[in-house]
Amino acid sequence: MYHSEIIGHGMYVPPGVVTNHDLSKIMETSHEWIVQRSGIEERRWVSPEVTTTDLALKASEEAIANAGIDKSEIDCILFATVSPDHDFPGSACFLQPKLGLKEIPAIDVRQQCSGFIYAMSMADAFIKTGQYKTILIVGAEVHSKGLDKTTKGRDVAVLFGDGAGAIIMRRKEVKDCLKDSFIWSTHLFTDGSSAKDLWLEAPGMALGPERLTHEMIETGKHYPYMNGKKVFANAVRRMCECTILALEANKLKLEDIDLFLFHQANMRINQMVAQELKIPEDKVYNTIQKYGNTTAATIPIGMAEAVKAQKLKKGSLVANAVFGSGFTWASAVYRW
Ligand SMILES: CC(C)(COP(=O)(O)OP(=O)(O)OC[C@H]1O[C@@H](n2cnc3c(N)ncnc32)[C@H](O)[C@@H]1OP(=O)(O)O)[C@@H](O)C(=O)NCCC(=O)NCCS
Questions:
Q1: Annotation says 320 is catalytic
Q2: Which stretches of the chain score pLDDT less than 50?
Q3: Cα 314 to averaged position of ligand 1 atoms, centre (Å)
Q4: What is the pLDDT of residue 24?
Q5: Architecture of domain 3-172
Q6: What is the pLDDT of residue 46?
Q7: Which residues are 284's β-sheet partners?
Q8: 263 is a catalytic site residue
Q9: What is the b/e burial string over 242-266, where b = at least 16 CB atoms within 10 angstroms of the residue's CB?
């Protein structure tokens, strides 16, 4: 059977830094509140003309160059995002021509903060069945254009940032299961009964004769709503559960893992997961301080930054755990 390997990575964040102090000028919040509750010090926001697929393009180009392949070798694109350029077609359809690629399948993955691991899992399955050989997976978000930046929306607005990350996954014939670089496992979960605890209600076909009305805009239904405490508690619980499951499935102990790359929603969530599982601090790599929550982009951004920081090296055994709207959660284990 074929396996799949991550052969290239890339990331891109827009240059516009927005500090907590900047936010405190436009809404009632403070640097201290944001850092204490979330660990976030700053995030990036795009300028008005920049789109999600613009960020995705830059991250993808870096991943292609890093993989040392010609882009014509890519035979499928999987694009994880919660902030698409348009409702339809999917953002992968807009990215494909920007990359100068033709006719290969370009698929959007709509699994919010868990989207990138869902896409990795789908790519792994495509490669294992022999359907595709070299897959570009990208996670990209422009949140800044969709947040309520007044005091009313401050519980959500301070947490999210813009950014993109990408990897190339390619077919690999594994000779040594323990030493070769390849994806060992992915595990995916959803509990749709909590769908409305973190959601964007409008525009929506479920809303009556019109998917978007002036009234919906006046009442802020076009901004994300989050039941923060419920999300927090479930994130800790589910990320712990799916990490343990991934380790058990691979007959691994915590100490076998070289690096834990968790979703970046809130530093306190990751600290509680590490505490609960007794993971030493130096084995967890966080980027939330600089970028906030970039949803589907946090995992590939984490990979790229961890490589730069020399925390992630060829041969490292990595565990990912993510949690997000849906609720969805997922884990992955692979040798880098
Ligand atoms: C959002 C979150 C940081 C809020 O932290 P919390 O400890 O639950 O805070 P609370 O909701 O109890 O709010 C405490 C107070 O701070 C206020 N507050 C909310 N946002 C604020 C902000 N940005 N600045 C200042 N005060 C704020 C609230 O209005 C509330 O005031 P009140 O006590 O007068 O009513 C936290 O719930 C969280 O991180 N949840 C998970 C978020 C997440 O991970 N989302 C993405 C998942 S993928």
A1: no
A2: none
A3: 39
A4: 98
A5: 3-Layer(aba) Sandwich (3.40)
A6: 98
A7: 260
A8: yes
A9: bbeebbeebebeeeebbbbbbbbbb
